[in-house]
Amino acid sequence: MFRPYPQLVRAGFRRxxxxxxxxxxxxxxxxxxGLLRAAVLAAVLAGRGTVGGxxxxxxxxxxxxxxxxxVAVLIWGDQELSRRIRSGDxxxxxxxxxxxxxxxxxxDLGRAGVAVLLRLLPPVAFGAIFFPFRFPEHAxxxxxxxxxxxxxxxxxxxxxxxxxxxxxxxxxxxGLIAMWxxxxxxxxGLVVPIxxxxxxxxxxxxxxxxxxxxxSPIDVFTERGDxxxxxxxxxxxxxxxxAVGRLVLARxxxxxxxxxx
Amino acid sequence: xxxxxxxxxxxSRVRGQLAYPWSFALDVAAQVIGQAFELVTIxxxxxxxxxxxxxxxxxxxxxxxxxxxxxxLTDLAVGQVEELPTFIRTGELDVMLLRPLRxxxxxxxADIALKxxxxxxxxxxxxxxxxxxxxxxxxxxxxxxxxxxxxLGAVILGSIWVAANALSFWLIDSSEVARGxxxxxxxxxxxxxxxxxxxxxxILCFAVPSAFIAYFPALALLGRxxxxxxxxLLRYSAPPVALLCIAAAALVWRSGIRRYQxxxx
Lengths: 261, 265
Hints:
Order of helices and strands of chain A: HHHHHHHHHHH
Helix content of chain B: over 70%
Largest sheet of chain A: none
Strand content of chain B: under 5%
Oligomer: heterodimer
Order of helices and strands of chain B: HHEEHHHHHHHHHH
Radius of gyration of chain B: 19 Å
Largest interface: A-B, 34 and 34 residues
Strand order of the largest sheet of chain B: 1-2
């Protein structure tokens, strides 16, 4: 059978590579926020050596890798599917000879590929050049980081897919998506390391998929904790989210009524 | 004419949003949570340390409260200016320029996102808590500072927003740059400027004067010496800075409008 998925990855890549200029314009904001966040974390560490297991180099690496992951792991502003559900265009997507979830994931992986080149590497390089930076000590960490990055993108996709599917039941998925975007920033360890939360909050957070988005790949890169356990957490949530996504899509598609016209 | 038109426009926008009370309530809740999450960051940091940049937790919350209230009021009043690049691209700005009303007020009232009141609520609550939990010597001066600081802060931030977004009269795709300036100054305002290095600090004090929104008024309220040893006069300089900001923003906006050529679409 004809497999459209590799082509979809390429199409996703090409689609976002077209808007190189917009992608690069975002770098300004990305790096500016990196500078501000780095300053705050450096102030936290000032004269204290380590806080919650983070020394200065690790904390700054955490900031710059986090800034770089922001667009690749995308937590904000993915509303395409919910719009297509609302407009009814989703029937076309459902009628195509593909698995909708897999097809959208493929396109999202292509998008993430562009983001890695244009939005992950530059801020990380900027941080590594101008700030104390903690490069991985072991060569295999780079490979584990790549795996963790892909897992983070897929987990993020799984959540975004579900949020968008809510449009089958709700008139406007925007509020829910906005709420998620806000919560994810703080709870995923993008803004402050999860290791700085009180013990009870840390325990609770690691039961959620949030850390799998940012804290996990950053932890793998900075070689904090057992990388395999971190990856295991990501894989577990990936499986759960993709399974629930399929289920919800099937239920949503069943109640879909589109007016002909 | 404008006196009667704008109240009507604003009233219609407000009615439009209240037409779907549940959706509106959810939107407000999202705004409340969004603003509160920024506070979570500060709270988490203070579970690890007792001072940040020489300031205690309740002092930083005071700075945050002033900053958040000013930011929320700005977002409510002029947040719509972020749509300027879209209005230019779609040609909608041309329609506005043709009407016998001024373009900026039209743009700002194109949508009044009432849900942003949720942010104001959180900002005022944090400010109220911080005013009560810090040892503030209440005098006519401190009362005046406490009341005017968020309002003047909103004027300063609002001017920064208008000027930053007016860049799109000159640059294509400048919305990301504008966002960096507006949200970046919003973020920076919530922390004592002592945490930033000398260069960032200079920019925050003088180029994008966000230090006058929360940091200096907070020093005035706390009556504590500035760790940076900056002149005491700066603490009470928010009114002239706000005036300067309005003048600068008006200048940028007007020269932008004057050189504006429609995209022709």
